[in-house]
Specification:
The complex is a heterodimer of chains A (422) and B (294). Chain A has 422 residues and is mainly α. Helices cover 67% and strands 2% of the residues of chain A. Chain A has a 3-stranded antiparallel β-sheet with strand order 1-3-2. The longest helix of chain A has 30 residues, at 277-306. Chain A starts with 19 loop residues before the first helix and ends with a helix. Chain B has 294 residues and is mainly beta. Among the domains of chain B are: 50-162, Immunoglobulin-like (Sandwich); 205-293, Cupredoxins -  blue copper proteins (Immunoglobulin-like), CATH 2.60.40.420. Chain B is built from 1 helix and 21 strands. The longest helix of chain B has 23 residues, at 5-27. Chain B is elongated. Classes of the chains: A mainly alpha (422), B mainly beta (294).
């Protein structure tokens, strides 16, 4: 496989293109909900971020916070990482017989979505690099520059999605070992300098998992209690760190490129361009991410024009794009996860020539799920943005103020549905 | 060993002599006890049935037997997931006797021969066999051990089945006797974008479902990569001509096809999984087309 890389790294079955019925139904719902929200939603902010939530029973919190639980999770993460490394080093160089590529591209990358949605930022608890780092923590770590934010993680996520969607031979053990070495090197050197706070800023999987956990009903209140609450509160408490916009744009753009890379016209462009296909595909990925970011920049500019007092239009609303990114992720990766995930586990258990199970949903059911995921993400995004805008804008301008955001979200949602048709 | 030392040596020499004698008699001269009575190499011993002067297409003479004692054969086929067909024979008053093939004809014994589109392609020494894709009519004929054809009323004992390219989506077609495997249907003809005009017309596309012709020249694919829309269960034949030695790979179905420069190669598959699948070449890494199976 030297030319066009397989999308998703692993898996030979792609989802069917959406039939126009589902696409129109989804687009119509998204538009309707947006305009209903403009008129009907509350006029003073309701989401209280970190302050909200009903505490879980104290016993449950004790178990969750117990050092034994934490140690067990660390050991689990370390054992899984060791198994992954051994498969990479000793296993056959064939994604059909080696579970390592599936473990990375499906179990980790896609599996973190449901895990984080259910349980919160799980990768922080499992991260084997944190475990490795805790064996020799630095004596006097330096403070992390405030301007850094989660920008290193955004770059890491872009690199990972490049590996997943563009890189040639992205399932070969050599490529994966190199990627693993680079990732571990960057993280461990950074952590040796800045202490273990570095992981929360720079580890792409930790940042990805923590951001997705903002949509989990399980959260932690400002006073440290483990609480159950509406995901809107958690979403509202997303820290507005530098790099949040970049991270969200990478997530949206890379998933959109994943949809684009199935399009025969794009494939023809790749194959007939005078450039190397990998270079063209890299440019394509960067262009899609840049396009998503440019739309967001335009929208932020419009917001700033409407209200001069809004000093940080870029980061103020970035959290409302997270549900949209989640909708994209679910729509694109659901069937991969339910078919290739079990196959990877079966392979890891030692079965040769494991067949991937049939998808649990028929074409109609899958299309419904995909459109529902994108539209739900859109609706959650609209509600989150509405609440933020009634808090930031003076009441007279609250409705008009969110118009640019609504236009942006409709553009993202229609774009997302459009890529599922293509 | 509990033998006293003195007895061992004579015993050993006796064994050696015996072994030598046995091997000499085995190699030397033509064995007279090799054939059981009535199983010499002559074609017709005349003891079972009547040898007719008529011959079948392959030149074997027919051996007439009364209908009441004649063997019968029925054939069932079902499509294989890798293309082609799995064949199952049900015979009555007949035994497969591969170990005496070439011997004299004995009533109710022998083997079966497969005739693909009228041409003899294989023998069956048992009930199960396989026919590669592309065959449209399969005839199974019963032969005696001496290679003559068992016949009733001057006609060979045989069963014919049509291997139509349109197996039903759920139930595989099976037919018995001389019936057809499936009612003849008209599969949807390939649309303009799917068939190339550069390649020679494909013979009888109706028997193998849809036929799509692709030509690879350097890095360009003619027609350019597009999607082939298929219904689940539909048959698809890909005719691919490359300009270099390569391997074609249909993802998801995991079918491969070696390509040699300038020679059209054909791959037939039954689209029995829904989804979007890519058809690629391995060495040049070109995507040729995508299969959209709904």
């Amino acid at each position: 496989m030297t030319g066009v890389p397989l999308a998703h790294g692993v898996g030979s079955r792609h989802d069917l293109p959406l039939s126009p019925f589902y696409a129109y139904a989804g687009a119509f719902t998204a538009l309707l909900v947006s305009f209903l929200a403009l008129g009907l939603l509350w006029s003073s902010s309701r989401f209280r971020g970190d302050e909200a939530g009903r505490p879980v029973p104290a016993a449950l919190q004790r178990v969750a916070d117990a050092p034994a639980t934490r140690t067990t999770l660390r050991l689990l993460g370390a054992a899984a990482a060791l198994l992954f490394l051994l498969h990479l080093l000793l296993g056959p160089d064939d994604p059909d017989r080696n579970p390592a590529p599936g473990a990375l591209y499906v179990l980790l990358w896609v599996g973190l979505v449901p895990a984080s949605l259910l349980l919160g930022p799980v990768w922080r608890l499992l991260n084997p690099l944190r475990t490795l780092h805790s064996l020799r923590p630095p004596r006097s770590p330096r403070p992390i520059p405030a301007a850094l934010g989660i920008r290193p993680a955004a770059a890491g996520l872009l690199l990972f999605t490049w590996l997943e969607l563009v890189a040639p031979d992205n399932t070969s053990t050599t490529t994966l070992l190199i990627a693993l070495a680079v990732h571990a090197g960057v993280q461990l050197i950074g952590a040796a300098r800045y202490g273990d706070r570095w992981f929360a800023h720079a580890d792409p999987f930790e940042v990805y998992s923590s951001l997705l956990a903002r949509l989990s009903p399980l959260g932690r209140r400002a006073d440290g209690r483990l609480v159950l609450r509406s995901p809107f509160h958690s979403l509202d408490s997303t820290p507005q760190t530098p790099g949040l916009v970049a991270t969200v744009c990478v997530l949206l753009g890379s998933t959109a490129y994943d949809g684009l890379s199935d399009n025969p016209r794009w494939i023809t462009t790749l194959q007939t361009s005078s450039l190397d296909p990998t270079v063209t595909a890299t440019l394509g990925l960067l262009a899609v991410v840049a396009l998503v970011a440019a739309f967001y920049g335009l929208c932020a500019g419009a917001l700033r024009l409407m209200d001069r007092s809004l000093t940080t239009p870029l980061t103020s609303f970035a959290h409302s794009l997270l549900p949209i990114a989640l909708g994209y992720l679910v729509a694109h990766y659901f069937s991969l996860f339910v078919t290739e995930g079990p196959r990877t586990v079966i392979m890891a258990a030692g079965t040769d020539n494991a067949l991937s199970p049939a998808p649990p949903l028929g074409p109609g059911g899958l299309a419904t799920l995909q459109v529902a995921a994108i539209v739900t993400g859109h609706v959650l995004g609209v509600v989150a943005a509405h609440d933020r805008s009634v808090r930031l804008f003076p009441p007279a301008r609250a409705v008009a103020g969110q118009l640019p955001l609504f236009v942006l979200m409709i553009a993202y949602t229609l774009g997302g549905i459009g890529l599922l048709i293509a | 060993m509990t033998h006293p030392r003195g007895a061992a040596a004579p015993l050993l020499s006796l064994v050696l002599v015996l072994a030598a004698a046995l091997s000499l008699s085995g190699c030397g001269g033509r064995a007279t006890t090799h054939h059981k009575p009535g199983t010499t190499h002559e074609e017709a011993s005349g003891s079972s049935g009547t040898l007719l002067p008529a011959r079948d297409e392959s030149g074997h003479r027919l051996r007439e037997v009364p209908a009441a004692t004649a063997p019968t054969v029925r054939v069932e086929v079902r499509p294989d997931t890798e293309g082609g067909w799995n064949v199952h024979l049900t015979v009555e008053r007949f035994r497969f006797t591969p170990d005496s093939t070439g011997g004299a004809a004995l009533p109710g014994r022998g083997h079966a021969r497969l005739l693909a589109d009228g041409r003899e392609t294989a023998r069956l020494y048992g009930a199960w066999g396989y026919v590669p894709p592309g065959v449209r009519t399969l005839t199974v004929r019963l032969h005696a051990d001496d290679h003559t054809v068992w016949a009733v009323a001057g006609a060979p004992v045989q069963a014919t089945v049509r291997l139509d390219g349109t197996p039903a989506a759920s139930a595989p077609p099976s037919a018995t006797g001389t019936g057809t495997a499936a009612p003849p249907t008209t599969p949807p003809s390939a649309t303009g974008t799917d068939t190339a005009t550069t390649a020679p017309p494909t013979p009888l596309p109706s028997e193998t479902g849809r036929t799509v012709t692709l030509t690879i020249t350097g890095k360009t694919v003619q027609p350019p990569p597009d999607r082939i829309e298929l219904k689940k269960g539909e048959r698809l034949t890909l005719r691919v001509t490359g300009d270099r030695a390569d391997t074609l790979h249909v993802h998801g179905y995991d079918r491969e096809l070696p390509l040699s420069p300038g020679v059209p190669a054909t791959l037939t598959l039954t689209a029995d999984r829904t989804g979007l699948f890519e058809v690629e070449t391995h060495d040049s890494g070109l995507l040729l087309t995508q299969l959209v199976v709904r």
